Amino acid sequence: MADIIDNIWNVTDLWKWFDDISNFTGMPPTEEDVGPCNIETETLNKYIVVTIYALVFLLSLLGNSLVMLVILYNRVSSSVTDVYLLNLAMADLLFALTLPIWAASKEHGWIFGTPLCKVVSLLKEVNFYSGILLLACISVDRYLAIVHATRTLIQKRHLVKFICLGIWGLSLILSLPFFLFRQAYRLPYSSLIVCYEDIGNNTAKWRLVLRILPQTFGFVLPLLVMVFCYGFTLRTLLEARMKQKYRAMRVIFVVVFVFLLCWLPYNLVLVTDTLMRTGLIEETCERRNDIGRALDATEILGFFHSCLNPVIYAFIGQNFRNGFLKILATHGLVSKDFLARHHITSYTSSSTNVSANF
């Protein structure tokens, strides 16, 4: 009788553990995860989460489409930074297209099969890595243009296209393990299907490797590059009292700040979870619950990033507003007199005036 009771306890505990990690970025339960902890069954209300996903999807779809439209419409005068921002909008837009699928999985479990599990997981990771790598490239471009007053890349804009291709390629490489190892499978002791990595007997150990390597090369190193470049760039602007260029850099500073505000908490929690699973931090039931709640909350914050950049451009980027109004005037939606009253003659975003005015 005691054995039967123990088995019932283990099955119940495993089911609670699954409910706790039902977000798609966590780790599915392995045998060592099953223990006597009273794991919370729901860290966040799933209906609120689905509503947030739908809102982010709509805002991102509209905002990033407008950003791409403005840049492509004025591509003749586009700068190096504009090209990077165009690719950043593309990455956010691609990720936003997957949000309805993730929202449905929150409600019904993973019902879309293994191929779609691989694709949407890949797009989510590519969005994150391409985002921070593109921002790192912008920081290097601004560093060279302001601190060293060089126009090497500015004069050879075609090189930027190859840099962007390289960024997409590196992002795909960093995200490839998720594409290779993620699949839809039925959870033990359950009828529910999930989308997670499955790497055989050493799944738990390999998941730690798949976390640590991309975190190092796809987050920590680009973050250090941005800190170095923007630190010296800001110092140069302040020492030279280049107020015009400082105002022009506001958009880029805000874009980087918002990216870190959205994604840094999630990555810090992920690092903490990894340290706990490797034994460097003691694992307790309370700590496991706290990290589960933190992962869910900070993941949603990270998802919000895909719709925030267009808002930044609209409120801070004068050139973006001018470019958008110019498109409206071309199609007769805004009068030419309106443009004249607001001194809007052309959409210029040259790297000479630090194109971050975008």
UniProtKB/TrEMBL annotation:
Q: Which GO biological process categories is it annotated with?
A: calcium-mediated signaling; immune response; neutrophil chemotaxis; positive regulation of cytosolic calcium ion concentration; receptor internalization
Identify the residues that the record assigns to the G-protein coupled receptors family 1 profile domain, covering every copy: 63-313
State the PROSITE patterns in the record.
G_PROTEIN_RECEP_F1_1 (PS00237), G_PROTEIN_RECEP_F1_2 (PS50262)
Superkingdom of this protein's organism: Eukaryota
Per the record, membrane topology reads: Multi-pass membrane protein
One of the entry's Gene Ontology molecular-function terms is: C-C chemokine receptor activity
GO CC terms in record: external side of plasma membrane
Membrane spanning stretches: 47-72, 84-103, 128-147, 159-181, 216-238, 250-268
Q: Where in the cell is it found?
A: Cell membrane
Q: Which Pfam families match?
A: 7tm_1
Locate the coiled-coil region(s) and give their ranges.
none
Matching Gene3D superfamilies? Rhodopsin 7-helix transmembrane proteins (1.20.1070.10)
Q: Which UniProt keywords apply?
A: Cell membrane, Chemotaxis, Disulfide bond, G-protein coupled receptor, Glycoprotein, Membrane, Receptor, Transducer, Transmembrane, Transmembrane helix
| InterPro entries linked to this entry | CCR1-9-like, Chemokine_CXCR1, Chemokine_CXCR_1/2, GPCR_Rhodpsn, GPCR_Rhodpsn_7TM
Function (record text): Receptor to interleukin-8, which is a powerful neutrophils chemotactic factor. Binding of IL-8 to the receptor causes activation of neutrophils. This response is mediated via a G-protein that activates a phosphatidylinositol-calcium second messenger system.
Question: Belongs to which family?
Answer: Belongs to the G-protein coupled receptor 1 family.
Query: Subunit structure, briefly?
Result: Interacts with IL8. Interacts with GNAI2.
Name of the protein in question:
C-X-C chemokine receptor type 1
State the organism named in the record: Loxodonta africana (African elephant)
